[in-house]
Amino acid sequence: xxxxxxxxxxxxxxxxxxxxxxxxxxxxxxxxxxxxxxxxxxxxxxxxxxxxxxxxxxxxxxxxxxxxxxxxxxxxxxxxxxxxxxxxxxxxxxxxxxxxxxxxxxxxxxxxxxxxxxxxxxxxxxxxxxxxxxxxxxxxxxxxxxxxxxxxxxxxxxxxxxxxxxxxxxxxxxxxxxxxxxxxxxxxxxxxxxxxxxxxxxxxxxxxxxxxxxxxxxxxxxxxxxxxxxxxxxxxxxxxxxxxxxxxxxxxxxxxxxxxxxxx
Length: 264
Hints:
Blueprint: E1 5-7, H1 12-21, E2 26-28, H2 34-39, E3 47-50, E4 60-63, E5 66-70, H3 75-80, H4 82-87, H5 89-96, H6 101-106, H7 109-115, H8 122-129, E6 132-135, E7 139-141, H9 142-145, E8 146-148, E9 151-152, E10 160-166, E11 170-177, E12 184-193, E13 196-202, E14 210-211, H10 213-219, H11 246-263
Parallel strand pairs: 1-3, 2-3
Antiparallel strand pairs: 4-5, 5-10, 6-7, 6-10, 8-9, 11-12, 12-13, 13-14
């Protein structure tokens, strides 16, 4: 690693002030996104601002027709939450299949969304439910939040504090896992909330998480795997690497979407 200054602010306001004063600084929550790239010397922050012990940011609450989860809630806390299991079981299932036990006990909801890894699971849930990202400055709709691979709408001094997930009548997630990391080679989250039907895909797109509008339109007639039978997505814009070609990932999008619909 390169040399850096370490800060442990007691509040989000203090953390935001440190960010504003140090343009090359990085926020650290659980550390599972930031520390690996620092070890590989792919990131060189001047300062690390550790918000992992800021109090009151790991809460999980049912508020009306939404579940509001603090940014510092660890994956295991979301997976084991009775509130989440009862009101939005698909979200609990997703959290329970992230990475391995070490990742689930340290990684956080806010850290995952701030990093926006193109193979991460949470972006598909957030986009697939039409969730709202709440920061120290504003509220950002999921459709406006994800702007590209490892890129978000967050401003330099903006910090995620909570995420509000609307409850869905039906929802499910299916992914084709990387056998070593547990990351999604292709993951698809589907949901039905009134007339709002969403299909969100992670792992496949070269520009990060995205919605499949053609699938959504077909599912408005009937929310069933049969409604998208034979449908696929273009290979253009899909990832290609040693684990799978663009054509293979495009095929998997349809397969995982149908499995998710069956599960929902």
